[in-house]
User: Fold this.
Amino acid sequence: MPKAIFNTHVISVTLFLLIYLIKTVLLLANKSQGLAKFTKMVKVPEMIISTLFLITGVYMLMQVGTTKLLVIKVCMVFVSIPVAIIGFKKSNKIMAVLSLLLIIGSYGLAEMNHIRVEKQTVDSAVSNTTAANYDIVKHGESVYTAYCQSCHGSGGTNGAGGVDLTMSQMSHEAKLERIKNGASSMPGFKDVLNEQEINAVDAYVETLKK
Ligand code: HEC
Assistant:
């Protein structure tokens, strides 16, 4: 996925959140004049920002496929919109706060998606590089099972939300870079996997190519 799309999404979501935060604060502080003024001022930018945020979001969803977390996130965003519209129209503070919480919550879920990687145990029988029968692909396979299978599925043919690795046209270098740094909802692994594990999982992924 082009980085520009992902970045546009993050920036537009952040701006959207900021606008909502300010509006909610004004509403809670009973500054109805200030709120009306602010709403008028941000009307056009808000339209552009929310369009960008929805379009990039839908595009990313189509590229990435759905995961349970993503479905929850998208539902939260879509529930928050009518709640926010009605909340602000009726100056209903509870609804305004609720919609803000929903948006912040879904934003938080997005962040969670990125930092979810935890150290897993990889079978020491295959990870011992000094063993005479050390096989980098076998080592890679066990790393794959522990860290990648949940998203990319068994054998790389797509699981819940990763792309089909058997169809990947990516160069070797680009793959290594992707495994280290991640992209969109794929986390980077450079902090949990050592160089050897990254090379091994990359070697295994290479063998999946059809
Ligand atoms: C949380 C889910 C998730 C996990 C875990 C995950 N990936 Fe991914 N992976 C993705 C998503 C989503 C993409 C598509 C990202 C994009 O290009 O926007 C992707 C893309 C890739 C690509 C690029 C394929 C291509 O041709 O575009 C490679 C290679 C890859 N993953 C390897 C791995 C390896 C190896 C692991 C384990 C160390 C791993 N992934 C773990 C979700 C995941």
